[in-house]
Amino acid sequence: MSVKESGSIDWSQYSAGAFYDEMITPKGNPRKACKAIAKHIASLSGEELEARRIAAENTVRDMGVSFTVYSDGENIDRVWPFDLIPRVIDADEWERTATGLKQRLRALNCFIDDVYHEQKIIKDGLLPEYLIKESKNFRPECVGVNPPQGVWAHICGCDLVRDSDGKFYVLEDNLRVPSGVAYMLENREVSKRVLPEFFETNNILPVDTYPRKLLETLISVSPRETRQPVIVLLTPGIYNSAYFEHAFLAQQLGIELVEGSDLFVDTDDCVYMKTIGGLERVDVIYRRIDDLFLDPEVFIEDSVLGAKGLMRAWQAGNVALVNAPGAGVADDKVIYAYVPQMVEYYLGEKAILPNVKTYLCEDPKQREYVLEHIAELVVKPANESGGYGMLVGPHASKKDHEAFRKLVQENPRNYIAQPTLALSTTPVITGPGSAEPRHLDLRPFVLQGSKLDVTTGGLTRVALKKGSLVVNSSQGGGSKDTWIVGAPKKVTAKTTGKGGAK
Amino acid sequence: MLSRVAERIYWFARYLERVESMARLIQVYTKMLSDLPRDSGISWHNLVIASGSRAEFERRFTVQDEKRVVRFLLEDLSNPGSMMSSLRMVKENIRTTRDVLPPETWEMVNEFRYFVSENVHLGINRRNRHAFLDEVIGKCQQINGLMADTMRRDTAYHFLRLGRYLERADMTLRTLEAGAWMLGDFIEDDSLHAGDVVWSSVLRTLDAMMPFRRTMRVALNGEDAAQFLLEDTLFPRSVMCCLNQMMESGQKIPGSPEGCPGLDSVLAKIEKGVDYSDPAALLKHFDVLQRDLGHMHGCIAETWFHAH
């Protein structure tokens, strides 16, 4: 409950209990970076807030921001759920986090390159060999390939969470086809339209350099040395849940949005697209389909999403695939546990961003712990994404615990366990003039071409149901604009005399 | 430009033109019926003919009252020729071609679609129909205006024009055809000056009343109206003018040096003309030209969309 008589939000009545709230301290005061923003929100009457909320809803609708869900065999376009109150992060803290993310991606790239070449990390005894051999996402077809610029992991969508100590932890790296960046950009567009005055008075760092940087990244990995390589975004088509993002990015980057049937690999092992004027050579493919659908010649034979011969062209060095095939080997959750060690091994640096504590069920001691404490832990399969096939101990029944104990014992390599995190919260509007804490995470995007870059913040996903930890939009989660807020803008008067400070 | 994208841009323009045409057709028809006595014998069914969905309507309905016809033509999503269906196709086609159109087009189409689905009931009853359809026409013009003002004159732009003018020429022919049918309904008794009413509504549907008067400088009559709407080279909704625009755009698209494939023979037929005073010959002429437009679409698809 946080409604004042006047109907506006009263932060002193707002409480996130034992959780770390990102906006309001346990004493009911706004945190440093949020001071002006929280105060401004509280100054709006319930009616005014409600009017802004409706304006945001209409803006999202008119902008056509949507995502696709499957229900009863039908594809439904749902309007993107957006919460008005921004998620605020201090610029200095973000700076450190961004450095940590870049460091992590450098190490991951070294690792992937090593896996497909000498496998020094195995020879040096840091990583057991079977982990790679048995990994679902290890692709023997990639062994010995040298992708342009030596880059395998071009675009990475790390999931970050804060625990009760208020620190950021990396939960997943997502090196296959991470999505969500279009929503990050569209969220900013919405908040600029409905909360314009906040941008006048606060130093909110811009996010819209991402399309330019992504384009630079793609250009930098072109195998043909030309200033204007032909770049395409390969989409599985309108039935994909991220199609909105594919179309959005193609438009923002000014690149061609293609489907597998638009591409053609000739006997010269070059990729061409079918245009009205004939065939045109393609240099870089930003592919948004999974490895196994890329090339029916090599992977799934009846895939209609990719194009025959893509792997051949890539192995011959005639086209860049972004991300490179086989990069997903680093997405394995068992391998994830080794990332901090990889940072030291490949870079000789201490990892800046910590992992969430992870128990490897393969290790007898750790397995014993997991089996004993399964009711407190989250147990995850090593190679699934999107939260499938996992157990949240504290929320599960005894029967489920037993079932997972069995699964872990039968196939220990395939399971890891982590403590159940006390995910941080932030206020979400729950009615006219009222806000309540809800759990959230953050997905920044890291780019790696000839340079490294991180989005300013990222996509904040937030659970909309009280107590829920599920932030996925397909399961009722919402999103917020993420504001990296720097020191207040300094208004310096260049001229002297008239018009000075009032 | 990808063949697939070219095809979708072309259809985007065709469906957008169809939305506007349907709004115009119903708008003018409603006004015309207000000028005629109840027992004039003119039925709402002519509108179904003009919209090109006669077979579909007759398969489903026997009664042809105003409400049924207007619902069928405006909001019935199971009728592929309805305004809502066309608008849905506008959206579907722009969804997959957003990357080559000005970004605001996407936003405008979204707004447009919400506006129509929330307000289409206003178009069913005569009381608010005018205001609603006016708004629909205005939104189509706004989208076309945006593209005219902001788009580079690249290949995508010329595919837009091909689609738009082919659809527009087709609509003009269908409106003329509906006019000729309507006159057939009156043949018994022309004390109502039905000819005046019908031909002025045909011209108004296409916003051609004033241009007709200033160009032809004769009192309104069917023969001159038909000739004007077919042969005038300067009026943007005349068939001749539409074809000329297509010729221009066809020449700017790579892959077909002679311009727009299949176009020359249609032009020749229009230039040759027909005995405009012979109703039967005229109806046949319309029919032949409509088939020719269909053939032209086939040629366009063959040349640019299905190559390789």
Automatic annotation (TrEMBL), chain A:
Pfam families: CP_ATPgrasp_2 (PF14403). Residues 86-463 form the Circularly permuted ATP-grasp type domain. InterPro entries: ATP-dep_Glu-Cys_Ligase-2, CP_ATPgrasp_2, UCP005522. SUPFAM superfamilies: Glutathione synthetase ATP-binding domain-like (SSF56059). Gene3D superfamilies: 3.30.1490.270, 3.40.50.11290. PANTHER family: BLR5612 PROTEIN (PTHR34595), SLL1039 PROTEIN (PTHR34595:SF7). This is Circularly permuted type 2 ATP-grasp protein.
TrEMBL record, chain B:
It comes from the Bacteria. Residues 1-305 form the DUF403 domain. This is Alpha-E domain-containing protein. It comes from Spongiibacter pelagi.
